[in-house]
Amino acid sequence: MDIARDAFVDGKWIATTERFPVHDPFDGSTIAEVADSDDALIDRAIEAASRAFEGWRKRPGPERGKLLRKLADTMLAEEDRLAALCTRENGKALKESVAEVRYAASFLSWFGGEAERIYGETIPATHTGQRLVAIREPVGPCAVITPWNFPYAMLTRKLGAALAAGCTVVAKPAEETPLGTLALAEIAERCGLPAGVFNVVPSSDGARTGGRLLASPSIKKISFTGSTEVGRIIMKNAAEDLKRVSLELGGNAPFVVLSDADLDAAVAGAIVAKFRNTGQTCVAANRFIVEQTIAETFTQKLLAAVGKLVTGRGSDDGVDLGPLINDDAVAKVTRLFDDAIEKGAKLLAGARPTSRLVPPIVLTDITPAMQLWHEEIFGPLVAIRTALNETDAIIQANDTEFGLIAYVFTRDGARQARVAEALEAGMVGVNEGLVSTAQAPFGGIKHSGVGREGSRHGIEDYTQLKYIATRI
Ligand code: SIN
Questions:
Q1: What are the tens digits of pLDDT across the range 258-307?
Q2: Looking at the domain assignment, is residue 26 inside a domain?
Q3: Which numbered atom of ligand 1 lies nearest the CA of 103?
Q4: Active site residue 282
Q5: Atom of ligand 1 nearest to the CA of 225
Q6: Do residues 307 and 371 share a domain?
Q7: Are residues 257 and 327 located together in one domain of the fold?
Q8: 3-state secondary structure of 173
Q9: Which of 156, 157, 302, 430 is positioned for an S-S bond with 104, CB 3.0–4.6 A?
Q10: How many other C-beta atoms are found inside a 10 Å radius of the C-beta of residue 221?
């Protein structure tokens, strides 16, 4: 497999002396040694993005859109190669990598269309002979810092919006998965994206690189997907320069199943919401809250479905769940498992993790005293707690500092509306286990983040309004 390994700055591939290894999560073998960007290279990337900004912002929206759609089409034409690379560096099952390439390309094509529709406003004048308008302008060069769980999609959700709006980008991919981002840079180069519009600075030191990007007055906005802890640091530092921030942070999603739910639909939704990417998503169902009258039936149906999931090497046929990303991830799931068992949880499926390959675990008798009630599990562990009734389920669901997404399963139309509105989350899936899509606003409330990605709201976050009053 031909893999891009160098930094991509100002349209050039930069080979650095310092390199860092990228590992296959399945067996820990080294896939590639990637350029480790130092401060000077990061500064070069910022300068390139600043220089390219003037030309890029002046290009008509339809032209920017056309280039974005070309990137999307090229990604799709090279789907097999890109998916195989994703499975190698992230470990996820190949079918999930294929789905991710399509999901990622959808952001580029959708934002490509939106580049033609960034409208301003005409405002009624106060006086005769006056024209008042508000136009939307790009905020400027942006830094995007992306996570390892969706190496393509979390990049394109930011990159597509930024480029469509007329901003330029310096991207810092996760240390675990820089290869996908570099593969997209190589595609961007082939598609004729002008030099400096999209720069990639891989780094083994996220704190230093993020700090450098934050400290630069040329960077006008930072978009970050990752932990709440790091999000807080970014927001504090961004305040220094009053930079814009978009933060997509941790989740602790409740998955509520009410007594009148279609239980087969709830189980199908649970499998997607819990096990996508081996449970390593911010939108993963973290706490199953099931009305007690149907808890036994739901649990038995879920156990039957979970029993069919195959764990193994992501590239092998028939595998549903690949390995966890690294040993730290295994340690976290193990800690949460041990704590829950010690505090009285009952093990119905799976076992204490012993390696990165973690077959599905199902625990019941969960209580709020357990750490997993409050922390994002980020692994294939189902934690079930019963609720007395709808009100109790809502109170339990909202018992968290996070508010990214919540799921509820019920057939009753009035309950669907009532519960969806009562749940404290930026997104709600009603009888739906997968809500993410390019045209809808993705993002959280409470400690789950600031801003929205995807949709017209996602693109507005990369623009600023300018009001112009003209005497004519
Ligand atoms: C995430 O896990 O951060 C994103 C998941 C998604 O886009 O569905």
A1: 999 999 999 999 999 999 999 999 999 999 999 999 999 999 999 999 99
A2: yes
A3: 7
A4: yes
A5: 3
A6: yes
A7: yes
A8: coil
A9: 156
A10: 25
Asked if residue 215 and residue 314 are part of one domain, the reply reads no
Q: How many domains does the chain divide into?
A: 2
**Residues 405-419: pLDDT tens digits?**
999 999 999 999 999
Q: What tokens does 198 get?
A: 């999209």
CATH number, domain of 87, equals 3.40.605.10
Nearest to 13 by CA among 34, 43, 40, 39: 34
Please tell me whether residues 233 and 278 are part of one structural domain: no
Residue with the two structure tokens 């730290």: 328
Atom number, ligand 1, closest to the C-alpha of residue 442: 7
Q: Does any domain span residue 1? A: no
Residue 2, domain member (yes or no): no
For residue range 302-326, what is the model confidence (pLDDT) as tens digits? 999 999 999 999 999 999 999 999 9
Q: Is residue 385 within 8 Å of 289, Cβ to Cβ?
A: yes
Range of the domain at 394: 253-438
**Quick check: CB of 282 below 6 Å from ligand 1?**
yes
Examine the domain organization and report whether 297 and 201 are in the same domain: no
Q: Is the pTM of this model over 0.70?
A: yes
- Ligand 1 contact, 448 CB (< 6 A): no
Q: Which of 248, 376, 453, 460 is catalytic?
A: 248
Q: Check which CATH number belongs to the domain holding 263 and give it.
A: 3.40.309.10
One-letter amino acid of 298: F
Active site (annotated) includes residue 116: no
Tokens for 333, please give them: 């799931």
Distance, CA of 163 to CA of 156 (rounded, Å): 10
The closest residue, in CA terms, to atom 3 on ligand 1 is 282
Give residues with Cβ within 8 angstroms of 279, minimum separation 6. Answer: 377, 378, 379, 380, 381
Looking at the fold, whether 213 and 296 belong to one and the same domain comes out as no
Q: Are residues 422 and 275 in the same domain?
A: yes
Q: What is the mean pLDDT of residues 361-378?
A: 98
Q: Which of 272, 276, 436, 453 to mutate to test the pocket of ligand 1 (most atoms within 8 A of CB)?
A: 436
> Best substitution site from 154, 227, 247 to test ligand 1's pocket, by max atoms within 8 Å of Cβ?
154
C-alpha distances (whole Å) from 69 to each of 75, 123, 452 are 10, 33, 22
